[in-house]
């Protein structure tokens, strides 16, 4: 009986998600379960983004750098797993009404220098008809559609302090027209 109880405890411990203190209330996701997540790099990871077509990434405008390397198909940015694609930016386009003062319209598009190869590690997320530093530009996805882009917040998970996101559906026209004209 003791052996059965120990075996059951090990099974539960093994099956439980790995907690991650870098994500507020978060846990490590299943490997390759978020294939649209992109890491923005400039010698180091500085923001996240979402692949919305084979040639375009959406992120937060406050993450702007004129040149950026995009890392796709990664699960752990500290480990080279052989599934990654490293692609440079061709263009980085902030929303024309972005304000660095109050972070209004905190959204930008990044055109890849070459299309990403879509596979089981790298896929797009559809546009629709509490955050911490380092989460900026990352996706808020519901029912397989990109609903928000992490913008800003007060510290990390502070009680009664909001996390703020750019609502992607408000920018669909700008996203589509920018993609088609570039």
How do the helices and strands follow one another from N- to C-terminus?
HEEEEEEEEEEEH
- CATH topology, by name, is Thrombin, subunit H
Number of strands: 11
Strand line-up in the sheet with most strands: 3-4-5-8-7-6
Structural notes for this entry:
The chain has 182 residues and is α+β, with helices and mostly antiparallel strands. It has one domain: Thrombin, subunit H (Beta Barrel). It has 2 helices and 11 strands. Strand 9 and strand 10 form a beta hairpin. It is globular, with a radius of gyration of 18 Å. It starts with a helix and ends with a helix. The N terminus is likely disordered.
What is the structure about, briefly put?
The protein has 182 residues and is an alpha+beta fold. It has two helices and eleven strands, in the order αβββββββββββα. The protein has one domain: Beta Barrel (Thrombin, subunit H), CATH 2.40.10.10.
Furnish the topology, listing elements before pairings.
Layout: H1 2-15, E1 19-20, E2 26-27, E3 37-41, E4 45-53, E5 56-59, E6 69-72, E7 85-94, E8 108-112, E9 139-142, E10 145-153, E11 163-167, H2 172-181
Antiparallel strand pairs: 1-2, 3-4, 3-6, 4-5, 5-8, 6-7, 7-8, 9-10, 10-11
Catalytic activity: Preferential cleavage: Arg-|-Xaa, Lys-|-Xaa
EC number: 3.4.21.4
GO molecular function: serine-type endopeptidase activity
